[in-house]
Amino acid sequence: PASITVVLLSAAARLAQLPLVRSACAGLSVLYTDTKRSHPGLTSVCDVLESSVTAARVTVTPVIEKLEPHISIANAVACKSLDWLEASFPVLLAPTDEVSSSF
């Protein structure tokens, strides 16, 4: 028999896949990139901030690993809340252009 692989997404990953969130993130990404290109003075500031975030991620990883059981519980609660939101508000799953055209 073929094995079935079940992939459980974190609440953050599920939230990021919602069409409205994906659309907003894409728009912000374009705005960020355009701002860096248009304002050379901000480019160096943004580059420093980006490298700082990368460094912070490495520094925080041991703490996250230690807190993983608590994070797992919080993630389960957040996933149940997302289940409820998606069931209660199906518009959250609709494509962004479909939602915006209905207003």
From TrEMBL:
Keywords: Lipid droplet, Signal. The keyword Membrane does not apply. This is Perilipin 6. It is found in: Lipid droplet. It comes from Salarias fasciatus. One of its GO terms (cellular component) is cytosol. Belongs to the perilipin family. GO terms for biological process: lipid storage; positive regulation of triglyceride storage. Residues 1-23 form the signal peptide. Transmembrane segments: none annotated.
